[in-house]
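TA notes, week 10

Several of you asked for a full example with nothing omitted. So below is the full record: structure tokens for the whole chain, then the designed sequence directly under it. When grading your own attempts, check the secondary structure regions first.
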């Protein structure tokens, strides 16, 4: 029983770490979008290249976890 509790806690910790990493990554991506817009407005090509490269790297690492939704068709009962 103790071993199962420890395993559960480890798995829970890993899941929390994965969520935290995803939140940090998404936050940085939002920052990068704003900084890229600013670099474009200022016509700063070096900053634009550097920021878009970082954004590409982060975007390739992002895993989108979308819930699977099953569509169920309901038929009305007519009497």
């Amino acid at each position: 029983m103790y071993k199962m509790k420890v395993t559960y806690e480890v798995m829970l910790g890993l899941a929390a770490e994965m969520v935290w990493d995803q939140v940090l990554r998404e936050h940085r991506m939002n920052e990068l979008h704003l900084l890229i817009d600013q670099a474009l407005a200022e016509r700063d090509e070096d900053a634009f290249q550097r920021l878009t490269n970082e954004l590409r790297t982060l975007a390739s690492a992002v895993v989108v976890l979308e819930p699977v939704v099953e569509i169920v068709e309901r038929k009305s009962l007519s009497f």
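The two ends are 55 Å apart (CA to CA). Use that as a sanity check on your answer.
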